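User: I'm putting together a teaching handout on how sequence relates to shape, and I'd like one worked example. Could you take Acyltransferase 3 domain-containing protein from Flavivirga eckloniae, show the sequence you're using, and then write out its predicted structure as tokens right after it?

Assistant: Happy to. First the sequence, then the structure tokens directly below it.
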Amino acid sequence: MYINKHRIFGLDIIRALAILLVLCSHSTLLLFPNNTEFYITVVQFFGTVGVDLFFVLSGYLIGGILLKQINQGKTKFKDFLYFWIRRWFRTLPNYFLILVINILLFYFLHERVIESIAYFFVFLQNFSGPYPDFFTESWSLSIEEYAYILGPLILFLLIAFFKNISKKVLYITMLLVIIITITLLRINFHLNHDIVSHHDWSRHVRKVVIYRIDSIYYGFLAAFLAHAYYASWQYYKKMFFVLGSVLFLGIHSYIFLFKAQPENSQLFYNVFYLPLLSISLLFFFPFFSTWKTGKLFKNLITRISVLSYALYLINYSIVLLTIQYFIEVESKPIMVKLFILLAYWFLSFGLSHLLFKYFENPMTKLRDLKIFKQ
């Protein structure tokens, strides 16, 4: 398996934790699709946190790449184009392959193609409205793709028009423009829409591009702080960990103690909850970025991290929904459920390994061809 020697183990822990949270959450949807008991809801909640971990981690890593590019004086359009090419070779091949497989699988099982399928090929399926009930993992990929395009493009334009201003100042300006704009869009949504349930809020706010891409740019901000104030970032890592824990537990204690839900606490959910969640998760990054451990544990975590993108794309729409189509899982005895659960995890990891080894990794390596560096 291809493992880059420059990987940061602590960030691999975050990535592995994020995908494992998602898989655990989806496991409850497989076994107990209609169960709303408290412990099931808690597991599913941590699955949503896993996706937010992916968002802030992506922003942290991509923001760091942009800052390195700025420090090296690579701020011409061809430099930003090469940045996009590298991201697209990392993300798009897997996405389009799994999208086509989903289309074929859906047609085989249901003998039809969903409406507006073309939107999925340009990441418009959830740009400004609720996502369709198809290939549901794609909602987060749309957010990431637009975040990769929007921020660097604004940064390039700022550098081109304000040549005498520090590029790091322009980097912060780009972040503030995007974060403030997205916040205003959520405020506008709050003032003009009524949320009737958590599911309604999730479809119309949490999973919509124009209300969510700021989550990734909080990661960009953390990358800037880590680079500009590295000594403090490391020295106060335990304090940041405590602050992150207090903030994370605080906002969710508020939800639990006051039974706050999107329908009765709309301002909190529409405007404040998602940014506070992102910030609380980022407080853990200084601590994890220096985490070290034994070789065996390290190899396991790194391998899960390497497979995380393939796992995210495959585990639900392809594996879980196919199992549910052929088997009425919820009514099965506990031992049968356990077997089905093991099959779900085995198929998810097995297919992800094949996808990574024979498609994702070879496609990613193409970005290093000389033709793209010229």
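A couple of points you could highlight for students: Residues 9-373 form one domain. The longest helix spans residues 38-71.
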